Amino acid sequence: MTTARPLERDTARQAVRPGVRPAGYALVRGGRGSFLLHRRAAVTAGSLAVLLALVCVAYLCIGESFVQPVEVLKVIFGQPSSDTLVVGTLRLPRMVLGLLVGVAFGISGGLIQTVARNPLASPDIIGISQGAGALTVGAMTFGVTSYTVLPYLSVVGGLGAAALVYAFAWRGGLHATRFVLIGIGFAIALRSIITLFMTKGDVLVAQQAQVWMTGSLNGRGYDEATPLLIVLIVLSPALAWAAYAQRTVSMDDDTATALGVRLGRVRLGLVVLGVVLASVATGAAGPVDFVALLAPQIARRLTRTAQIPLLCSALLGAVIVVLGDLLARVVLAPTELPVGVLTAAVGAPYLIWLIIRSRTTGGK
After folding, report:
1. Less crowded by CB within 10 Å, the N or C end of the chain?
2. What is the C-alpha separation between 27 and 19, in angstroms, rounded?
3. Cβ contacts of residue 145 below 8 Å, gap of 6+?
4. How far apart are alpha carbons 45 and 299 in whole angstroms?
5. Which residue has the higher pLDDT, 175 or 313?
């Protein structure tokens, strides 16, 4: 396993050293306990929440017909409005799904990148989204098209792909470069399997699968959002643990082991959480590429923390998906693009920049 950078090691050690308050943190006392709060991360999270609220209002206002913000608020709060059909029936369910998908991908990318200690280790790069997609498209090819079933199949496919990548990458430890390269290999192989399923299936089913594979919110809403919301609620205690466990994973192995941390179990737990979230999100909206790659790294640069801030990553993921789907609806109106096309247009250049930067800095 590659070691953390010196700055990350020092910050992580300070965060777990009794009686020491790291620079940039505030001690918050409440009830019978207290906790450390990173000031910049808190301000960033608040700012992102405001930005997300503004993007959501714009999403509900803008379209083929413009709706006044006052009318949008009336619909949201259940008051009578002449725009109930446009806002409450057509736009709001789709926006809610986009919010949840963005949150799930943002958290998933943060968890997996934390374990791999590599900014390239996102679900859509290392084969997890492809594993979810392969089983889902295979099921669609054989006649399973219910969106209440597909998310669960995606979880099985994502977990299976992650298990294979993890098993092949493990050599007495989890080396970041090996983990990413093996994941990329599995992603290519699984994409070939997806293509095979699409060529062997019915033409209409193949077209439906093709739209799903681009990552789209078109024609989707509360039915697809419900399983994802349930998963996020059920996993909320585990996600709270993951936010705390990130501190130990950010340290080098020797320091974490000296503190009594069982790194193997912690890493496995974080990976499983990330895979489940990415797989369910993929089942709901298809593999919306690069959201899980972009959100955690932008969040980390905004907050300047030693580990990826999960809350900021979740908020950024939601902003990216909702804003991307808004642009997908209006850029070539009345034609609607899949949101995955917009996120890929932004994410692909960023991926190239990450690769070039890792080569010029020697991976540091």
Report:
1. C
2. 11
3. 205, 208
4. 9
5. 313
Close Cβ partners of 357 (under 8 Å, ≥ 6 residues apart): none
- Contact of 283 with 155, CB cutoff 8 Å: yes
Q: How far is CA 275 from CA 17, 206, 246, 262, 362, in A?
A: 31, 26, 16, 20, 29
Query: How far is the C-alpha of 89 from the C-alpha of 125, rounded, in Å?
Result: 35
Answer yes or no: are the C-beta atoms of 113 and 354 closer than 8 Å. no
SS3 assignment, position 26? strand
CA–CA distance, 101 with 129 (Å, rounded to integer): 13
Radius of gyration of the chain from Cα atoms?
21
| Both tokens assigned to 26 | 């505030």
**DSSP SS3 for 309:** coil
Taking Cα atoms as reference points, which of 292, 149, 281 lies closest to residue 215?
281
H-run or E-run covering 61: helix 39-61
273's CB contacts (< 8 A; 6+ apart) are 107, 108, 111, 235, 238, 239, 242
For residue 295, give every residue at least 6 positions away whose Cβ sits within 8 Å of its Cβ, in sequence order, or none: 102, 105, 106, 109, 110, 313, 314, 316, 317, 320
Strand intervals (E) in the chain: 25-30, 33-38
The whole-angstrom distance between residue 271's C-alpha and the CA centroid of its chain comes to: 13
311: which 2 tokens? 């809350």
**Residue scoring higher pLDDT (334 or 103):** 103
Compute the distance between CA of residue 169 and CA of residue 180 in angstroms, rounded to an integer.
9
The residue among 20 and 170 whose pLDDT is bigger is 170
Question: What's the rounded Cα separation, in Å, for the pair 139 and 145?
Answer: 8
Residue pair 193/157 in contact by the 8 Å Cβ criterion: no
Residues 10/23, Cβ–Cβ less than 8 Å: no
Q: What is the pLDDT of residue 91?
A: 93
Write the pLDDT tens digit of every residue in 305-350.
Answer: 888 899 999 999 999 999 999 999 998 878 888 898 888 888 878 7
